[in-house]
Specification:
Blueprint: E1 3-8, E2 11-16, H1 27-42, E3 48-53, H2 64-68, E4 94-98, E5 101-103, H3 105-112, E6 115-119, E7 123-125, H4 139-147, H5 149-158, E8 162-163, H6 164-169, E9 175-177, H7 182-194, H8 198-210, H9 216-234
Helix pairs in contact: 3-4, 4-5, 8-9
Length: about 240
């Protein structure tokens, strides 16, 4: 089994379990990740998900050996992306727990998450780009929106490794944890979020995401409409 899930109360853990490949994702693993997050989104008792990897590594990206062997689906603009869930729009938040490395598509997978908790000795980077492999899982889009255009270009055009301390300073990760404790720190954060009343929190999350495609006036109206709908739901 390349992807495992387990429940911790209202929190769903999604674990990439391919330590022999540094949790690089092949076709079956991408499909399993998609299925795991679709199931989380449908589960009315699950409030927050945590995505992590085994063996002290988050994810090394797409499995290049599987690609070379022709065992990886050929990506298309309309089909599923290489890493699986990165074009899904979930109704609930996901937290990435990063140990070791989040490289290439692994970083794109982490960028898809709402929050990122990284170990203090972790490294992140789009190492696929110097190898001539493009971003296909949202990296070049989400990176600019998360850390700003100039900083994003520094990472995109160099493909360099970013240490965790710098990642925190530029907003690439949300929080740091002691080495070996990123998953537990992310689980604690997920439990804290899950304890909040959901309607207002999810309304704020939705409008924060939707505003990228709106004018300021449209975004403010959308915030009011979504927030008032949340209040009505709890009245």
């Amino acid at each position: 089994m390349t992807v495992r899930t387990q429940r911790e109360g209202p929190v769903t853990l999604v674990i990439i379990d391919r330590p022999e490949r540094r949790n690089a994702v092949d076709g079956p693993a991408a499909a399993a990740l998609t299925d795991a997050f679709a199931a989380f989104d449908r589960d009315g008792q699950a409030r927050v998900a945590v995505l992590t990897g085994t063996g002290g590594t988050f994810c090394a990206g797409s499995d290049l050996k599987a690609m070379a062997a022709g065992e990886f689906p050929v990506p298309t603009a309309d089909g599923p992306p290489p890493l699986g869930p990165t074009r899904m729009r979930l109704a609930k938040p996901v937290i990435a727990a990063i140990e070791g490395g989040a490289f290439g598509g692994g970083l794109e997978l982490a960028l898809w998450c709402d929050l990122r908790v990284a170990a203090e000795d972790a490294e992140l980077g789009l190492l696929n780009l110097p190898k001539g492999l493009p971003c296909l899982d949202g990296g070049s889009v989400r990176l600019s929106r998360l850390i700003g255009h100039g900083r994003a270009l520094d990472l995109l055009l160099t493909g360099r490794r970013v240490p965790a301390a710098e990642a925190l300073a530029i907003g690439l990760v949300s929080r740091l944890a002691a080495p070996g404790t990123a998953a537990q720190a992310a689980l604690n954060l997920a439990r804290q979020i899950a304890a909040f009343p959901p309607d207002g929190l999810l309304a704020a999350r939705d409008t924060a995401t939707a505003q990228w495609g709106l004018t300021e006036e449209q975004a403010l109206r959308a915030e009011a409409e979504r927030g008032l709908s949340a209040v009505s739901a709890t009245a």
